[in-house]
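Field log, afternoon session.

UNIT: design team B
ACTIVITY: writing a sequence onto a fixed backbone
BACKBONE:
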């Protein structure tokens, strides 16, 4: 072993130990490892930042933004209401989510399948009042298992098909992977369904802030219009959209006459509804019900990228005290709308513009974010910590889902690379205002992207120093002393172990020729060994860095580096125990 190889292994081993220790944030660990690698000479300075232009960083960042845009559209809530309205038990929800993402991943890129299902996972988690962390990692693992089932499911399968063609003149077909991959997917989903409690319940770092400032009794008003989905339907049907977290407190007819909001009361064109509840539930009532907020002039006169929503508390010396929005002629003077008001232990039945403001009232204000901070200071209003509230914002319905579907189709048919397709999709999400430019960068999860970009050149040092050749020689020597099933298992385990440091495509390029040469030397057919490499490279369940799907759920799930092995280790062992006998059965060695 040369000095450079020893240094490369040492840097990676120490880095992994610090990751598992978990006391230092993962992006800082990765950046530190990169600096050390540069310092000891195993990463050249001119290649130090090549990771920032790597496809994996582009794919993960773009997929996070695309997923956020799909979530913001509200279409996933409609899908849940229509196709899975009664799924409230966490285990049933988990099985449904993992099954869908697993099947989808067999036919489209698993990163795309996962991107479209993450918003549904968040909706289901809110519905059953559990942490999304119970769903997201099993879904990521399910997407990896689904990719094993077909040739197009994952990059390793495509690459081993090419290697087989170079060796034998015959490639693997689309469904040659299905007998073994299908069994592994079925077994894997069953394991995930019974062992998900191995995962700790994690929350995003900003979730505690959200809980601390959560306002539950906002009051707003909205109007039933001719295009409303709830026109001529009952109050009960509208309130059902809020999942019990919002209610109608008063109905004002077109003639100004009040009606009691009984559950069977019919909603008519022109009715003005006083709504009370949590902001997210109010947003569902307005968005899915097709209601019109009473005053949306701000959206007509302000550029979309400058519009924002802010929560603020009326201070004790505020000039707003004792006045109503009508008294203030608020929009005409400032270009700001009051979307909702909250006052402790008070239920409003007056119209929103008629409520006189008091010290301590919490206002939901919508306006030009370039001017709102100055206005809040002038009014002596204290802004709360920023939350992603959507009440009053414009959504583009099916457009985000359509953009994602096109991106997935382009990658499935090999028309454009995955990175280009998802980068294009993310750009279109912003251009179509499916997600405001102001919000877009908040969804990119910079710590995750920095970690990936810093790790890529560190991991590549294994190849540049000849470390991978050293591993290959060691594997060949060890495998020659083992029985066939032992050698097959060793190849699969080695591919699993190397994948976090080389990514799955590079792992196959390194390991597949080794596996084929070893099989030929011993007089075996190479197919089972090539399949073992593909399965091992496609099944990185131990870390968040071996596959972009695992990386993608790390931020939204609030996971730590060491959380992955809790569920991933037993799943990896089961994949080896089931996969090796299945390979020997389906692909005989002689």
């Amino acid at each position: 072993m040369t000095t450079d190889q020893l240094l490369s292994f040492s840097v990676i081993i120490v880095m992994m130990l610090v990751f598992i220790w978990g006391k230092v944030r993962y992006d800082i660990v990765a950046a530190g490892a990169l600096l050390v690698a540069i310092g000891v000479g195993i990463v050249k300075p001119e290649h130090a930042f090549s990771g920032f232009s790597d496809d994996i960083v582009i794919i993960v960042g773009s997929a996070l933004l695309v997923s956020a845009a799909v979530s913001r559209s509200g279409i996933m809530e409609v899908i849940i209401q229509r196709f899975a309205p009664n799924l409230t038990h966490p285990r049933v929800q988990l099985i449904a989510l993992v099954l869908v993402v697993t099947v989808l991943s067999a036919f489209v890129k698993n990163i795309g399948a996962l991107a479209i299902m993450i918003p549904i996972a968040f909706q289901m988690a809110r519905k059953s009042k559990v942490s999304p962390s119970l769903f997201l990692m099993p879904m990521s693992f399910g997407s990896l298992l689904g990719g094993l089932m077909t040739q197009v499911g994952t990059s390793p399968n495509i690459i081993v098909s090419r290697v087989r063609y170079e060796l034998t003149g015959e490639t693997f077909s689309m469904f040659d992977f299905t007998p073994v991959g299908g069994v592994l997917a079925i077994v894997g989903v069953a394991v995930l369904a019974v062992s998900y409690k191995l995962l700790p319940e994690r929350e995003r770092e900003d979730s505690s802030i959200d809980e601390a400032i959560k306002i539950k009794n906002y009051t707003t008003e909205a109007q039933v219009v001719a295009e409303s989905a709830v026109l001529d339907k009952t109050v009960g049907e509208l309130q059902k959209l809020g999942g019990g977290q919002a209610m109608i407190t008063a109905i004002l007819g077109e003639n100004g006459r009040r009606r009691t909001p009984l559950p069977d009361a019919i909603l008519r064109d022109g009715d003005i509804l006083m709504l009370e509840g949590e902001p997210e539930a109010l947003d569902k009532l307005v968005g899915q019900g097709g209601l019109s907020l009473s005053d949306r002039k701000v959206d007509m006169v302000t550029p979309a990228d400058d519009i924002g929503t802010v929560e603020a508390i009326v201070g004790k010396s505020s000039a707003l005290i004792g006045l109503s929005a009508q008294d203030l002629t608020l929009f005409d003077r400032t270009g700001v709308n009051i979307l909702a008001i909250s006052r402790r232990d008070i239920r409003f039945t007056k119209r929103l513009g008629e409520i006189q403001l008091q010290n301590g009232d919490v206002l939901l204000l919508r306006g030009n974010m370039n001017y709102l901070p100055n206005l809040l200071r002038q009014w002596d209003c204290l802004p709360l910590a920023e939350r992603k509230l959507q009440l009053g914002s414009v959504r583009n319905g099916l457009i985000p889902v359509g953009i994602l579907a096109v991106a997935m189709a382009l990658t499935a048919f090999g028309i454009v690379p995955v990175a280009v397709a998802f980068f294009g999709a993310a750009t279109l999400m912003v251009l179509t205002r499916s997600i405001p430019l102001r919000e877009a960068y908040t969804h990119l999860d910079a710590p995750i992207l920095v970690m990936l970009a810093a790790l890529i050149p560190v991991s590549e040092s294994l190849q540049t120093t000849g470390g991978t050749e050293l591993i290959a020689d060691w594997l060949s020597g060890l495998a020659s002393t083992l029985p066939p099933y032992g050698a097959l298992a060793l190849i699969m385990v080695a591919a699993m172990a190397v994948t976090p440091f080389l990514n799955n495509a590079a792992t196959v390029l390194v390991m597949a020729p080794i596996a084929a040469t070893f099989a030929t030397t011993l007089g075996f057919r190479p197919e089972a060994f090539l399949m073992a490499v593909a399965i091992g490279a496609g099944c990185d369940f131990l870390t968040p860095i071996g596959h972009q799907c695992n990386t993608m759920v790390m931020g939204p799930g609030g996971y730590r580096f060491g959380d992955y092995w809790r569920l991933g280790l037993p799943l990896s062992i089961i994949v080896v125990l089931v996969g090796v006998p299945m390979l020997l059965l389906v692909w005989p060695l002689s």
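LOG NOTE: The two ends are 36 Å apart (CA to CA).
NEXT ACTIVITY: expression trials, pending approval
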